[in-house]
Give the backbone structure.
Amino acid sequence: MNNFNITRLQNGITVVSENISYVKSFSLGFWFNVGSREENSKNNGISHFIEHMLFKGTKKRTARNIADSIESLGGYLNAFTTKEQTCYYGRGLNNHIEKTFEVLADMVQYPLFKPADIKKEATVVIDELYDIEDTPEELIFDEFENNLFRSSSLGMPIIGTSENILKFDQKMLSEYISKNYTFDNLFIVASGSVDNEKIIKDVDKYFSKDLGSSGKRRKRIDPVKPTDVQIYKDIQQVHLIFGRSAPGMKDDLRIPINLLSHILGEGSSSRLFQSVRERNGIAYQVNSFLNSFFDISSFGIYLSTNEKSIEKAHTIILNEFAKLRNKKVSEKELKKAKEYLKGNLLMSLESTTNRMLRIAQSVIYFDEIETIENSISKIDAVSRDQILYLSNEYLNPETFSKTIVSSKNLLMHSAA
């Protein structure tokens, strides 16, 4: 029997826990509701850079001490930054959760930001940036969203720019963390063999610094008209994203559009995989995607192929769009997509880390923990008529833009 708890503490911290009686481990995350979306052109990349720097030492611990204190107990410590959140998390055996909590609390309250460490880490992060720029299948998504969301900071890359990274200093990092790493922006989320009351006591015990309140609220962004983009790289293959904006996390249409995306291009039985790869053999990689933020999503098709086949692949995509707009999907095909979504959801629950991620996002975006049963019922409620409606609403080629990474100019004629 799972036991969920959401506790809003007086200082503003939200504590979320899920007790799973049959496991002996835990996953614990400190989530700050801040990412590259809160940045501007002058500090773009700072959220991700701070994520790196928090592992470089505190008033009590060196970088080595931070790693050893958890790994010596058989645990694991890591972090990630998205466009909307930054998460520091650990996992381990249940009798070590307090130690993991104490280390994470130390990291987020008392980072040193030594100038020498900042300088060294800037080199590391710039190497990471170059890795992205050298990897077309990663670069193209940054370029696509940069164009799609060019009217807002949501379009900026998480990693930032080399110019910004080299300018970060102790003052900039300290000011940014003071402004955004606040009590009301912090969600402490745990799943596994955990005790909610004990976590609350650990907050009182290990949070000695007043992190204050930000009181910030995200502004919604409006979609802009898509434009085509060409990026030139000395590569053999052509990489294409054919995409547009779609409703975000908080919109009721997100799950139906997710199902449409699965039917269109997710999995080896999807329409695009079968038509582009299996029947025509012209692309190794082809898939649809739905990358969602609280108020908007990026939605589209990604593929890579050779120069001679890119036009044909694009034509096949347009043909599959037309089929979905003109004829209802069969009950069998819709059921298969639903089972795929439900299967992924249910299998992910076998990991306490995945469960921690899921309930954190649920509380951050919806202010509640959505039950598995409710998620499944929403999937089951999607009808063939709704898929047909969404296909006509969101698979209009005129609303899509093309982002291409290739060695020569291969922008195709606008789809009409």
